[in-house]
Amino acid sequence: MISDNETAKRVEASALAQSVSLGAFAETATRLGPGRISLGVVQTLVSAYWLGWPWAFAWCVAFALYEMRISPWLLQRFVRPFAQDEARRAERASVLILLMTSCLYLLGWLPAWLAAGPAGDFVAAALVGATLIRGVVSFSQSERVFFAYCSPPVLAMLAVLAMRLENLAAAGVFLAAFANLLLCTYFLRGRLSALVGQMMRANTERQAAEETSIAKTQFLTTMTHELRTPLNAVINYAEMIEEDSEGAIASDAGKITQAARRLLGLLDRILDFADLDAGKLRLTPTPIDVDMFIRDLIRKTEIDRDTHVALIFADNEAPTIFADKDRLAQCIGCLLANAREHTSSARIVVRVGAVGDCALISVEDTGPGIPADQLGVIFEAFRQSDMSNTRSKDGLGLGLAAARRIARAMGGELTAASTPGAGSCFTLRVPSGHVSVEPTRLAS
């Protein structure tokens, strides 16, 4: 059973697709395309062959005047201004305009068909088929517009077939084939209309999601900048109090400074992630000896005294890669910080190796592990495997999200594997080839 919400979405998508279809029709119909010029030439030649040049010339003049002057003016005046805001009004105007257009085309070939007799059946069938095809392609979003354009030639063909009832066998075969064509055309129009409606709804939802993401990024950037100024003032005054005081007051001032600096670090991470999410990341690739890079990085990284980092190099030495050193260090630093936060045995294992032309860097911890259904969630911004209010670990949930964005910007990938109760392993794969230095819009 379809819910009211789903029904509203379908109606909205249909109205949107219809307005876009009418707007596009108004745009393209004002230009005399090659297809319509060719159709006019064919109908002129057909009329000249069976009816003579006077009738053909008169119809050609009327066709040219209507297509180049009258039709564009009608569309500009009655369809285009209302296609977006007043779709029903634009639809009614389109029905009348296309009805006149179809009748004008009909006058170009119907008299010739009647004069030619059975010899003109092929030409008439081809022209009616072309009309139905254009109706499906161009006007499938509106039943009224579709039938206004296709009805005149269809009714004319049925009338001619009725006039030829003396040859029942031929008329019956022709009518059966024609009815089958009409049925296929109608169902094809419905399928195409539904497909276009779904595409338009998906496009609208995508644009809304992009606008929401941009607004979120702008909010994070503004909020972070606004909070940094008073927070720096708190840090400065707390340091002054700590320097000028002794005993408990100095100790309390030191705690204030420490907490404020921690909060400032969180703001810096939010601001950096906002830049990543907004596509402001610029990479400066340089050659990196992965083995030496990892040794230096671990030596410089602040690790708790009680935590031991075991560095293991595989037999297949990691290749020299071209990557941004600062961003690669940030990515691996996020993995080390995550492991330090969750390890339970004070031991972190970092493995360095290679697969093909890619360097592999894995960080293993001995923490509680991550449930299988949460492995995809942990790489989303502001998400953690444990989102409850009673979780034991603090954090914003930005580290892994930022690490994956950086990895993908470098042409690599960051994946996770975990066994609940035994720990987790995060593996960073970085290709050895050059990467682009252009700003990249990073996907989640």
Mind explaining what this structure looks like?
Helices cover 65% and strands 10% of the residues. By secondary structure, the protein is of the alpha+beta class. Among the domains are: 4-163, no CATH class; 286-431, Histidine kinase-like ATPase, C-terminal domain (Heat Shock Protein 90, 2-Layer Sandwich). The strands form two sheets. Strands 2-4-5-7-6 form a five-stranded mixed β-sheet. Strands 1-3 form a two-stranded antiparallel sheet. α2 (34-51) packs antiparallel against α3 (53-78) and α2 (34-51) packs parallel to α4. The longest helix is centred in the middle third of the chain and has 77 residues, at 168-244. Mean pLDDT is 75; it is low at 6-20, 26-32, 387-392 and 434-444.
Task: Give the topology, please.
Elements lengths: L3 H26 L4 H18 L1 H26 L8 H30 L4 H19 L3 H21 L4 H77 L2 H31 L8 E3 L1 H11 L7 E6 L7 E3 L1 H18 L4 E9 L2 E7 L34 H11 L3 E7 L3 E9 L13
Parallel strand pairs: 2-4
Antiparallel strand pairs: 1-3, 4-5, 5-7, 6-7
Helix pairs in contact: 1-4, 1-7, 2-3, 2-4, 3-4, 4-5, 4-6, 5-6, 5-7, 7-8, 8-11, 10-11
Helix content: 55-70%
| Oligomeric organization of the protein chains | single chain
What is the overall silhouette? elongated
Structural class: alpha+beta
pLDDT averaged over residues: 75
Biggest sheet strand order reads 2-4-5-7-6
Q: Regions with pLDDT < 50 over 5+ consecutive residues?
A: 6-20, 26-32, 387-392, 434-444
- Strand-residue proportion: 5-15%
**H/E series, N to C?**
HHHHHHHHEHEEHEEHEE
Cα separation of the termini:
34 Å
Count of discrete alpha- or pi-helical segments spanning 4 or more residues: 11
The largest sheet, given as strand count, sense and whether it forms a barrel, is:
5 strands, mixed
What is the radius of gyration?
35 Å
Number of separate strands: 7
EC number: 2.7.13.3
Domain Histidine kinase: 222-434
Catalytic activity: ATP + protein L-histidine = ADP + protein N-phospho-L-histidine
Protein name: histidine kinase
